[in-house]
DNA sequence: TTTGAGTGTGACGAATTTATTACAGACTAA
DNA sequence: TTAGTCTGTAATAAATTCGTCACACTCAAA
């Protein structure tokens, strides 16, 4: 269960399905959209680490959308890989001009796709050899599956670990219970929203043992936030 | 100038040549044969450390030869990596049945080839620079096949030894049961995941006799970790 | 102060995951 | 061959985790 989310935007259902399967098998968490409109919605409440974008799309074209995203400060850092039709050299050039991070010419092999994705992620620092997330004196090491606070090791359950991992990679941001369920539990399970509260409680209890209870903050009416600042 | 001899058996001259070059560059000493007959001769008077064997061969097929070798006591230990054509899943299954140590699906990258070869050689103990791995007061000597803790020598079975070897070369890192099976048992065998648990248990028991039971740690939901730290 | 929605908390049973044991077949050395 | 070891698997036990619920508490608007 990687938490590398990849947003696929592709109108052809067959290719979309193929991409989804390939990415899943490669250990990513893909989300697919058929056109820009729904992609935009997904973008709003999920937090993809990379977008795989078809060049030709009905309605707003992929290029056009990419151009917009690259102009938007809050999405500028989000890597985009364009999928172009065979041999349209010109497109490639234009694609890179608008700031796409890579392009891939159809047809491509699954292997190549995954390799390119990894390369881009690595370049943007999201896929690192260094597997540590450091926040203050909190260290979460995904490779060792360890959560330490100062010198002390915290004993957390798998779900708590994933929750912490998500929080620590998105500090200072408020997330609704639904968003947390989507991100930490996965989009495909249905679970009561209140369950999040319980897990938050458990996390706070553990953190509280080390005087760090206030790291997880309640934002009444919205959800929770993880932050070093009060 | 390695003394690792690798016997290549491949009928297509182009691929044979490519393999030879790749292996040479990787520091191995390749010897190539176009079919089983000449391979058999080479086998008789040179002593390869590993065979890279094409699945499809004129005359006796690669599989058939592999099967024979694996039955012959004097060659049983000789690792074999099968080269299979793309997507022939069935072949893989048969490949592992006859006891191949790994398989590689064409086309493959030189990098992957070399990595797999190294892995297999390491697993069979033939690739070791310094033969000792030292961790705390634990010493694992791959050449003498010995595991000592302080002054005491531990009596471990072959599988336990390989498991320890893998753990000691990758300390502090969590591995899933699948990863352990791939790395310690080999990619081409199908074994129940639970079997790992049993071997872990056996290892712990042995280590426990010397007060080192806690070296192998359970990471619930993920797998196991070998670490000197709690 | 009242009221109701939003949140915190402890408990519980079910589900999941891991540990342990026993056993049969394969293999090895004598 | 034979006794003994090694290994994978299945069965069972033990431990942990997880989602829900019921009820207590908070907060803010009226």
Structure report:
- Two copies of one chain form a homodimer.
- The first copy, chain A, has 230 residues and is α/β, with parallel strands linked by helices.
- Chain A has helices at residues 13-25, 36-45, 62-71, 89-97, 110-123, 158-169, 177-185, 194-208, and strands at residues 5-9, 29-33, 50-54, 80-84, 102-105, 132-135, 138-141, 146-149, 152-154, 174-175, 216-219, 223-226.
- Chain A has a five-stranded parallel β-sheet, with helices on both faces. The first copy, chain A, has a four-stranded antiparallel β-sheet with strand order 6-7-8-9, covered by helices on one side. The first copy, chain A, has a three-stranded antiparallel β-sheet with strand order 10-12-11.
- In chain A, a hairpin with a 3-residue loop joins strand 11 and strand 12.
- In chain A, helix 6 (158-169) crosses helix 7.
- The longest helix of chain A has 15 residues, at 194-208.
- The first copy, chain A, is elongated, with a radius of gyration of 19 Å.
- The A-B interface holds A 143-145, 153, 157-158 and B 172-174, 219-222, 225, 227, 230.
- The structure holds a DNA duplex (30 and 30 nucleotides).
SS content category of chain A: alpha/beta
Any idea of the CATH class of the largest domain in chain A?
Answer: Alpha Beta
> What is the architecture of the largest domain in chain A at the second tier of CATH?
3-Layer(aba) Sandwich
Runs of chain A in which pLDDT lies below 50 for 5 or more consecutive residues are none
Task: Compute the CA-based radius of gyration of chain A.
Answer: 19 Å
Biggest sheet statistics of chain A: 5 strands, parallel
Mean of all residue-level pLDDT scores of chain A: 83
Helix content of chain A: 40-55%
CATH fold-level label of the largest domain in chain A: Rossmann fold
Q: How would you name the CATH homologous superfamily of the largest domain in chain A?
A: Response regulator
Largest interface: A-B, 6 and 10 residues
Total strands of chain A = 12
DNA-binding region (chains A, B): 130-228
GO molecular function, one term (chains A, B): transcription cis-regulatory region binding
Modified residues (4-aspartylphosphate) (chains A, B): 54
Function (chains A, B): This protein is a positive regulator for the phosphate regulon. Transcription of this operon is positively regulated by PhoB and PhoR when phosphate is limited.
